Amino acid sequence: MEGHTPIFCVGVLDSLAVELKVTKDFSKLYAGIAILGYIASVPESVNTQAFSHLLTFLGHRYPKIRKALAEQVYLVLLQNGELVTEDKMEKVLEIISETCWEGDIEEAKQRRLELHDMAGLETGLLPKIGNGASNRDGEKRPTASDENASYSSLVGSTRF
């Protein structure tokens, strides 16, 4: 069974990447964050891919999700120090703990890019996550730049 763990984890990561990009369900997002954190903590080759997903989602449109992700990234780094080189670890932990992840999304995205670079991960192919989603008519909605507009779109999409 041990030999199948990486294959299983890759399948889970692929499913999570698709599901977490489009969902607005907070419980599903929190569960996905926990799963990504677990996979990033296991001593398998797939942990780098899970860690990359965690960093990518630090640019999520919902501030509370960004904060939960930052906390998860911090815990993962404490558990698995091999994801970032030892000489950069202190700076990475400082960025994670001192950034206001519930604040401006542009600052969060900039910090996310810094973390990607420090972890030695490619940043050229960062997917867009949870921003500018199409509505039912196929039109692009404008991206929300502040917390209230973002939550307003969530409430509007659930027809409350």
UniProtKB/TrEMBL annotation:
UniProt protein name: Tubulin-folding cofactor D
Gene Ontology biological-process entries: post-chaperonin tubulin folding pathway; tubulin complex assembly
Positions of the UniProt region annotated as Disordered: 126-160
Ranges of compositional bias, category Polar residues: 145-160
GO MF annotations in UniProt: beta-tubulin binding; GTPase activator activity
UniProt cross-references to InterPro entries, sorted A to Z: TBCD
